[in-house]
Write a structure and sequence with these properties.
There is one protein chain. This protein is an alpha/beta fold. The chain folds into two domains: 137 residues, Aspartate Aminotransferase, domain 1; 241 residues, 3-Layer(aba) Sandwich (Aspartate Aminotransferase, domain 2). Helix content is 39%, strand content 13%. The chain has a seven-stranded mixed β-sheet, sandwiched between helices. A three-stranded antiparallel β-sheet has the order 9-10-12. Strands 1-11 form a two-stranded parallel sheet. Helix 7 links the parallel strand 5 and strand 6. The longest helix has 22 residues. The structure holds 4'-deoxy-4'-aminopyridoxal-5'-phosphate. The site of 4'-deoxy-4'-aminopyridoxal-5'-phosphate (PMP) has 14 residues, from helix 4.
């Protein structure tokens, strides 16, 4: 029996916070470059000849689209290989610039690893790094932030929406406090774009194409042009010397198209997906054997419409995940970026979820192609999956 024969016919992809399938609009935007434009748009955008200039034009169109979306100048868009690189560039580039006298960085405890790992590296390199805690609803402690800002600070970096829980940060208050204290603000907006109004007042914003229905390996850092930013990729003068390396033209075009499509569909997707997410959540909670066996993370917090993170008290999230996969349901235990390791999620620990329970986390995240049939499939198989996972060795009592 081959692997595909052992797979169920019905599948449901409920892992949009990890990545999204390519949107039709993004495919339509890149196809002319890859098919009809195969002989005309392959040039290096830095070349002055016709081939280079054809590529340059589509790259600059994409840049203009992204800039327009955030109300910025085209020169304020730095295309990157994704949000990980954008986050690295923002944090290191700002706190390591020779013009920065403060060398102080404030982050929240629930940031993505592409922020926290950089913060740790910077701390080792002499930057004064402060990690601000969150409350049990995942919101950054604004009083602690305000206290931290009393010491002159270079940069505050806070994600707009948490990738593991879908919880929305009080970003306006964070930006206001930081600006009142003369600090710059970087917002990782990877999980908020296309779901809520973007954090336009931030000084630096990271976005990623593949979370929006664009290609993997493409993203951008939107950075105000007056911010001193030390390039991390050195070499050619691309991206106004902020990021050396031949540009990923197709990726940038996919980003612009996916961003436009996500924004256009934001309200209709909210209306369509909110009841599906709510039904999923309510049914799974009701299907657990006894009250208290399962908890909705962030139930009392503002959350985006597509994410549902549950903590099962007696089951390991990874066991559940594997049992779901056997039924064709793709989800994630905590963060996809850390799946494969059985470390409890740092996000849930920071929200004071006990470590033993945090191991029982599972995240369902919906997106543009999620149908009610996908949710029905999950709800159909879940009692069986839950019973199987409860009997598995990792079961905790
Ligand atoms: N920040 C957040 C909040 C994310 O969810 C992700 C993707 N897991 C990233 C950054 C990294 O994005 P990319 O995959 O484009 O490097």
């Amino acid at each position: 029996m081959t692997l595909s024969e052992s797979r169920p016919n019905r599948r449901a992809y409920l892992d949009y916070n990890a990545t999204s399938p390519l949107r039709r609009e993004a495919l339509d935007a890149i196809r002319p470059l890859l098919v009809e434009g195969l002989d005309t748009h392959f040039g290096n955008p830095s070349s002055i000849h016709w081939a280079g200039q054809a590529a340059r034009r589509v790259l600059e169109d994409a840049r203009g689209t992204v800039a327009g979306f955030f109300g910025r100048k085209a020169s304020e868009i730095i295309f990157t290989s994704g949000a990980t690189e954008a986050n690295n560039l923002a944090l290191t580039g700002v706190t390591h610039h020779p013009r920065d006298a403060n060398r102080r960085l404030v982050v929240s405890a629930v940031e993505h690893p592409s922020v926290l790992a950089v913060a740790d590296r910077l701390a080792g390199l002499g930057v004064d790094v402060v990690r601000v805690p969150v409350d049990h609803n995942g919101a950054i402690a604004l009083d602690v932030l305000e206290q931290a800002l009393k010491t002159p600070t270079t940069l505050v970096s806070v994600a707009h929406v948490n990738n593991e829980t879908g919880i929305i940060s009080p970003i306006d208050a964070v930006i206001r406090l930081a600006h009142e204290h003369g600090a710059l603000v970087h917002v990782d907006a990877v999980q908020s774009v296309g779901r809520i109004v973007p954090p336009l007042a931030a000084d630096l914003i990271s976005i990623s194409a593949h979370k929006l229905g664009g290609l993997k390996g493409a993203g951008a850092l939107i950075a105000r042009s007056d911010i001193p930013l030390l390039a991390q990729n050195l070499g050619g003068p691309q991206e106004r010397t902020h990021r050396a390396g031949t540009e990923n033209v197709v990726g940038a075009v996919s980003l612009a198209a996916a961003l436009t499509a996500s924004e256009r569909a934001r309200e209709s997707e909210r209306e369509r997906l909110t009841p599906l997410r709510d039904r999923l959540e309510a049914t799974l909670v009701a299907q657990a054997q006894s009250p208290g066996d399962v908890e909705i993370i962030g139930a009392g917090a503002p959350r985006v419409f597509n994410t549902c993170t549950l903590v099962f008290k007696h089951i390991e999230g990874d066991t559940l995940l594997q049992a779901l996969d056997l039924e064709g349901v793709a989800a994630s235990s905590g963060s996809a970026c850390s799946s494969g390791s059985l470390e409890p999620s740092h996000v849930l620990l920071a929200m004071q979820v006990p470590a033993s329970q945090a191991l029982g986390a599972i995240r369902f995240s919906l997106g543009w192609a999620t149908s009610s049939e996908d949710i029905e499939h999950l709800l159909d198989v879940f009692p069986r999956v839950y019973a199987r996972a409860k009997r598995a060795p990792g079961t905790r009592t």
